[in-house]
Every structure is written in structure tokens, then in C-alpha cells.
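Name: Secreted protein
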Amino acid sequence: MTTRNGRRRRPRSSRIEQWKSRPSFMTLAALLAVASVTVTFLAVSRPDSTAATATADVGKSIGRGFTPRPTTEPKWDGKTKIIGDGSTSYTGPQKDQLKPKPLKPGEKPPQFVVFSWDGALEGDDHLFSHYREMAEQYNAHMTFFLTGIYLLPKSKKDLYHPPQHPVGSAAIDYATDEHIRDTVEQLRLAYDQGNEIGTHFNGHFCGAKGGGDWSVEEWKSEIDQFYSFVQNWKTNTGSKNIAPLPFDFQREVIGGRAPCLEGQPNLLKAIKSYGWRYDASSPGDFQIWPTRKNGIWDFPLQMLPYEGGKYQGLSMDFNFLYNQSKGETKGDPAKYPQWEQQTVDSYMAGFNRVYYGSRAPLFIGNHFENWNGDIYMKAIDQVVKNVCTKDGVKCVSFKELTDWLDVQKPATLERLRTLDPGQSPDWSAVVQ
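Structure predicted for Secreted protein:
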């Protein structure tokens, strides 16, 4: 069953480790020296009540007919092309996108900020639509990572063959028919307004037999099924009277974030054959300019100053939840104002460190949840208003950031990566 407000995740008992460092005093070399410390990322899921068993169907998923993305984009003839059963269509290149340009010699980079959302469901709380509207209001673009089974009705759950788990099982609930229709509408509007639709895969399995235990072929099975669910939602729901989505998932999805940030090594091997260009599944890193892993841009969650810089905490709502209320989603209401301000302060400290320093992109990852009286949503509201209106700031999607990085001189990016987060350099020596 879904909960009253349409949310389908519950945090399980776990813990998160704070990164103890002193960013104001530590140089990049010192930061990198301790970067091998493991971040424990908190999975938020509903434990599967069915005993996990291996399935013989893994690797034989429904969507294995995936066609790799073409290396060159053909010129659009101006006509809408309906795809498959009419669930999706191609309406030409996405509009209102950042036009990537190489930095000119001595030019200070823009301050990129990426707000990303795991799950991308329009539930009864209407948080998807709220942040889509907020992005439009503040001339921002965001990345919405869609969970594939959020477009698959529960009555068709046996179409899902999750790796290492029984057919039809998932660690989250399936969406209601109403939520599927509402989510489709938000996906349509989000895309039309220039936002990115990525993937959060399907069953949200974490821990034992989750993504960290999956082989390359099992990850490919998960990806193929994602494509199948989102490209056939009309057939699976029987909703024939709804207009197709105005984009082709196989063209538009160029990256995603794995549930619980697990399994990136094999995931990176899997996604290359799909033509994906980035992955946001790293469990955490310092605020430095991105680099590639196995040819794929790596966009990790970042460590931001927490409690006035006493600690470094990951740039996601889970991190604040576990540190402030020990994972309880309904902690002490008397502390909500303090926790909300603490969350805002941490995000802003991380922003200011790079805005007045290295200009490394800031990555913020969140979920559409009302934990602790909505304080994490309220915090994001404040941060969007505070940062997306500043001079030199571009609130963009991961896709737009990828496009921008791809046109920069490799030597310039290498020099940018040598900067401490708070270091404001002579830009003429960095950008040549």
C-alpha cells in the first residue's frame, strides 16, 4: 500500500558517518590524502517482505532490444514522431538548453549548481510539481531521476524481473493509477521547461543483493527494464487517451543515480554500451571539479561544512535526517526550526566556499519527502531562492553541465581540478 501522501519509502535502521575535516585549513593535497575513507550512505526503502531468491530470468528482461544511441543526431524535419505504442514521441531537440561555450582566456567559470531529485514521483504532496514550478520561477533547470516502476501499475508487477530478487518484488511500493497519470503529466511539463529526465532505475534494492552485488549483465537487465516500463506505460496502464510524452527516453536519458549509491563500478561498465555520458552514483567526494571514470563524467554527492565547519556532511537530505534525528522521520518538533536552519546553513556554506573560491559545481541530491515536518524541502526552497538569483550562477541539469564540460579544453579542466574548494585563483593562470 501507498501511504496517505503517496510516498513509498521508509528509512531502515542504519547510520551515516560524518567526514571530519577542517576545510578552511586543509589543502587539496591533504583532502585527497583522506579521500579513501568510506562514506556510509543511508538507504531509504521499505524492506521487501518476500525472502530474496535468485531468479533464472535475470539477464533476459523485457527490454533487451535496446538500440544504442546514434553517434550523430540527424537533423529534425519538424514533424512529431510517435514511438512504439504512443507512450513517447520525438519532438525535436529539447528547447531552452544552456548553450555550452569554451571558457575564454582568463574568464571566471560560471558557478554551476545542480539540484537533483531521486524517484521523480508526483504524489499527493505534489512536490514534483512544486519544484518544477520553482525551477521555472527562478530560471533554473533541475534533474529529475525517474524510477521506472513508478510508471508500471501494480497489477502488472510481474513484468518486472529484478536482479537477484523474486519476480515482481521491489523495495518500494508501486504507484497508484492516479499517481502514474500525474507523474506522466509532470514529466511532460518538466521536459518542456528544459529540465532533465534521468533514471533512478527500478526496484530500489539496497544492501544484500542490491546494486552493489549486481554483475554488469544484471545492471543491463535493470536498465533495459527501465526503458521498457517508461516506453510502454500506455499499454501497461491502458490509458490510451493521454498524449504521448514529448521525448524519446533512449535519446534523452544520458545518466542516472543508483539507489543508495551502490554498485557504481559495474554500473559504469554497463552504461557505456548505452551511450550514457555521466553517472551520479558516487557515495561522496570533496567539492572539486569533476573528472571522468572509465570515460563517464562522475558527479558525486559532495561534502559540505556541517555545524559551522566542525564536520563535513553529504549534500543530501538523508545525511541531515540521520544526523539530526537519528533516522527518525518524525523527530522532536521543537527542534525543527533549528534543524532547518542548520540544513540551510550547510548548503549555503558549501555554495559560498566555491562561489567565492574555485567555482567547482555544487551538487545537491534530495527526495520528495516530508520528513521532520518538511524541513528539508523548506531548506531547498530557501537555497534555490538564495543561489539561483546570484550573479554568475547557473542552476542547471546534469545534462547541461555535461555538455558544458565536454566543450572545455582538457588542459583547462586539469588546472581547475588542482584548486582547493575555497581557493580563488588568478583566473588568467588557470583558464588559458
